[in-house]
TrEMBL record:
This is peptidylprolyl isomerase. GO terms for molecular function: peptidyl-prolyl cis-trans isomerase activity. It holds the Pfam family FKBP_C. Residues 1-20 form the signal peptide. It catalyses: [protein]-peptidylproline (omega=180) = [protein]-peptidylproline (omega=0). Residues 163-249 form the PPIase FKBP-type domain. Gene3D superfamilies: 3.10.50.40, Peptidyl-prolyl cis-trans isomerase, FKBP-type, N-terminal domain. Its EC number is 5.2.1.8.
Length: 250
């Protein structure tokens, strides 16, 4: 019983386990998530909004803005919401334990199969994007690891190593142009230890010098892999960054 519940929960929320640019929450996700939030009016007054916030939190925890809605058809989502409401109100006609015992494994299988299909499609799109980027940019090179490096401005200062801290500006997009995080948009540079970020950044920044600017196209195995990151970077996603290196701190 508990095994089924934990399996379902871990599958639905796995995208939330990784923060942007690192395996631990350091920077990026908060700003990116904020940009995706609606700027429209609140649906209730201040007295009722805390309860709306509770519902928002519960939905977010199980992928309401992330993976779950991409895995279910509209009618399937309606059934999920019906079951949630019935269970919360205590009006469910079936025994909840029996429902989970009888159908939990089937749900696991459905979600796993659909997730795998989505990841493979996203990876294929990334491969096509990389091929097209290389064809359109003669100065772009692909390293042995698969990183695509395109120099935009050659720097003349220090060149960082993995043990250094760097100060940069960056603008990160998905292959469809969606901006998921950008220090440029926030109007402030950011400093971080180079050995604390994704592999594509470690390799790409090590190819730059202070004062330089480059585009990095990073396949998923050098970024966030099949897990993705939070609600903004899908599993298997290829990422494109424009990075400007301001300073290397030895």
């Amino acid at each position: 019983m508990q095994i089924i519940g934990m399996s379902l929960l871990s599958l639905l929320v796995r995208q939330r386990a990784v923060a942007a640019f690192s395996s631990s929450p350091k920077f990026g996700v908060k700003a990116a998530t904020a940009r995706l939030m609606s700027s429209g009016p609140m649906p209730y007054d201040d007295e009722k909004m805390p309860f709306y916030a509770l519902g928002t939190n519960l939905a977010t925890q199980v992928g309401g803005q992330g993976n779950l809605k991409t895995l279910l058809e509209d009618d399937e989502m309606d059934i999920v919401l019906e079951a949630f409401t019935d269970t919360m109100r205590g009006t469910c006609t079936a025994d909840t334990r029996e429902v989970l015992m009888q159908y939990g494994q089937s749900l696991n299988k459905i979600l796993q199969e659909r997730t795998a299909n989505i990841v493979e499609r996203v990876k294929k799109d990334g491969e096509e994007f990389i091929t097209n980027f290389l064809d359109c940019n003669e100065e772009a090179t692909k390293t042995d690891s698969g990183l695509v490096y395109y120099p935009m401005v050659e720097g003349e200062g220090e060149q960082p190593t993995a043990s250094d801290t760097v100060e940069v500006h960056y603008h990160g997009t998905l292959t469809d142009g969606t901006v998921f995080d950008s220090s440029v948009d926030r109007g402030e540079t950011i400093k971080f230890p180079l050995n604390g970020v994704i592999k594509g950044w470690q390799e790409g920044l090590a190819m730059m010098k202070e004062g330089g600017k480059a585009t990095l196209v990073i396949a998923s195995d050098l970024a966030y892999g099949d897990q993705g990151s939070g609600e903004v970077i899908p599993p298997g996603a290829t990422l494109k960054f424009e990075v400007e290196l301001f300073k290397v701190v030895k």
